[in-house]
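Exercise 7.
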Amino acid sequence: MSRLPQELKAVYSGSGGSAAESAPSPSIRGLRALAGLLCRLFLVFLAVGMLPAQQGTPMATIGPAPVQIAPPRPNYPFPDGQGYVYSAEWHLITAGTAVVKMEGAGNNRKVTASAESAGAVNVIFPVHDRFESRFDPRTFCSLSIFKHSEEGAHKRETSIGFDYARKKGTLDEKNLKTGETKHVENDLAACATDVITGFYYLQSLPLMLGASYEFPISDGKTTIVHATVEKRELIKVPAGTFPAVLVTAEATSGPLQSKGKVWVWYSEDPSHTPVQMRAKLGWGALLFRLQRIEK
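Solution. The predicted structure, written as tokens, is:
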């Protein structure tokens, strides 16, 4: 097994217990941190810090990109009913699996995502997370997010609303173990996507070589993400071998600015299926590989 970095710290600290429990080994601390980050890193377009956005015609630029959420092109074929199943790997360790799926929900679209820890990670720090996002398919503007998170002994539910009329984003969170609640409001831009729908927003863009895009993503707070279509590559994953385009993305504002980077390989056919993803932070990288597409 690959050696875990000594500097990794647990996402959550334990309470009570013996000295051995309160001071776990570096390997255990590393696995706990990895498990706690599994779901958040799967949709690694993380969201912090609020900046404005504009709506407009889809644009791809060589050079500076406009900050906006571009509505989908007319008759865009949303990948309804398709479930993307990924394995999550870190230094040859299988950390877990993640599934993302889109389907119709009345006049809106619903995207669901789940993350389940596996192997040694599941034994030391089990993760069972569920996300649901709804967005307007005419604009790609997010409408709401619901999260149910079970990470070790921590269980919480979070609801996020996008009130564009008031230009406010609301976050309500409840600790299911203690009953503690919190309510937070932040200024909201004219249109923003979220950490789940953003996964599909990039998929809908033309993704021409050399093109760059900037858009806001919100998870209660918002950051601006800059994405660039870098090059073509042939990618082999358990689901098959795909001619693909490599898209790099990173936050350009907020606390996560310059602290991490994401590589996403989208198939070069019209479906732009995300076949592989890699997320890099200071302590290492997580790799997500498409196992299969469920219909």
